[in-house]
Amino acid sequence: MFRRYADTLTSEGFIRIVIHAVGRMKAGPERELADRYLDRAAKAGPAIGMELAGVSEIPESRARSTLERKREEGRKLLDFAQGGALILLDERGKNLSSRELGDRFASFRDSGFRQIVMAIGGPDGHDDAVRAAADLSISFGAQTWPHQLVRVMLAEQLYRLITILSGHPYHRD
After folding, report:
1. What's domain 2-165's superfamily in CATH?
2. Distance of alpha carbon 152 from alpha carbon 157, whole angstroms
3. Reported confidence tier of residue 100, pLDDT bands at 50, 70, 90
4. Please, which of 9, 24, 108, 128 could form a disulfide with 113 given CB 3.0 to 4.6 Å?
5. % helix / strand / coil in the chain, to the nearest 5?
6. Under a CB-based contact definition with an 8 Å cutoff, are residues 62 and 23 in contact?
7. 8 A C-beta contact, residue 63 and residue 69
8. What is the tens place of the pLDDT at every residue in 144-172?
9. Is 121 annotated as a binding residue?
10. Name one GO cellular component term.
């Protein structure tokens, strides 16, 4: 499933942002909140050369072993992310501030990448091959978060980093 938040932009200098998630987010308050932030990000992004293209969801693997599940999900992710910057949400990732994450996005955009794929793994996490291929791994802390809340937090951070890069006052500065 792919939910689109903006029409595809073809202008030079724009970078597409896509969220790739293992598992489907059901209707409910978490999805409504995530969609609200993603809609805001989609409207604000073009002013700074960023297009929120949408959310790609793939079903969780039904393979028997954890290793097989992670590999199967990882292959799909790597196929999807070809040619773009790959950012993993991963418990082993770096704990970046909103401004630092925004600076990384701007760096990817300014260095010629045409797409950023933000990847949320399945319940077993990311395969080692995916971790090795990632351009950046980030974490929302050492705690374990339900996937629905991770999506809300990611959506909010995308909106926040776009507003920071747009020059809106940021209360943490």
Report:
1. SPOUT methyltransferase, trefoil knot domain (3.40.1280.10)
2. 9
3. very high
4. 108
5. 45, 25, 35
6. no
7. yes
8. 899 999 999 999 999 999 999 999 876 66
9. yes
10. cytoplasm
Q: How large is the average pLDDT for residues 57-64?
A: 93
As a whole number of angstroms, the distance between CA 134 and CA 93 comes to 11
CA distances from 124 to 22, 23, 72 (A): 10, 12, 12
Element (H, E) at 73: helix 66-81
- Residue carrying the six token digits 């291929």: 133
pTM of the model: 0.89
What percent of the chain is modeled with pLDDT above 90? 80
Rounded CA-CA distance 85/66 in Å is 26
14 — pLDDT class (breaks 50, 70, 90): confident
Sign of CA dihedral 118, 90, 48, 24: positive
Alpha helices in 82-169 (DSSP H): 98-110, 128-133, 147-165
